[in-house]
């Protein structure tokens, strides 16, 4: 009788272990599926971040190009103004050049 009871007890444990194993396997599969979904989500997020970064770099390039164009225009306008002033007042331009050269020479001679 004890042997029969022991076998019954072993059978019951085996069934419980079988259910526990099946539950554990199902849970492990769920976790693996979650990891697959997480990997897909991270991939989509990386793609979106990459696209946003490319768009921002493109926009920054356009701003830098616009800034450079504006700077060239201002420099050209300033150069034209300076040439116009030298042609209008040549004596003043020579005096300013002479004075600037004298001061620069004196400063460099001090060293």
The assigned structural class equals mainly alpha
Tell me the span between the first and last alpha carbons. Answer: 116 Å
Largest sheet: none
Query: pLDDT below 50 for ≥5 consecutive residues: which ranges?
Result: none
Give the DSSP E fraction (strand runs of 2 or more residues). Answer: under 5%
Over all CA atoms, what is the radius of gyration? 42 Å
| Basic shape | rod-shaped
List keywords for this structure.
single chain, 111 residues, mainly alpha, rod-shaped
Give an overview of the whole structure:
With 111 residues, this protein is an all-alpha fold. It has one domain (2-110). It is built from 2 helices and no strands. Helix 1 crosses helix 2. The N and C termini lie far apart (116 Å).
Q: How do the strands and helices of this protein lay out in sequence?
A:
Blueprint: H1 2-88, H2 90-110
Short description:
The chain contains 2 helices and no strands. It is mostly helical and 111 residues long. The model has no long low-confidence stretch (mean pLDDT 86).
């Amino acid at each position: 009788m004890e042997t029969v009871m022991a076998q019954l007890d072993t059978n019951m444990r085996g069934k419980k272990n079988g259910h526990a194993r099946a539950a554990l396997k199902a849970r492990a599969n769920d976790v693996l599926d979650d990891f697959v979904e997480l990997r897909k989500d991270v991939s989509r997020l990386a793609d979106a971040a990459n696209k946003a970064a490319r768009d921002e770099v493109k926009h920054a390039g356009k701003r830098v190009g616009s800034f450079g164009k504006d700077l060239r225009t201002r420099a050209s306008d300033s150069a034209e103004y300076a040439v116009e002033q030298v042609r209008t007042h040549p004596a003043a331009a020579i005096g300013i050049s002479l004075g600037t050269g004298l001061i620069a020479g004196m400063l460099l001679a001090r060293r």
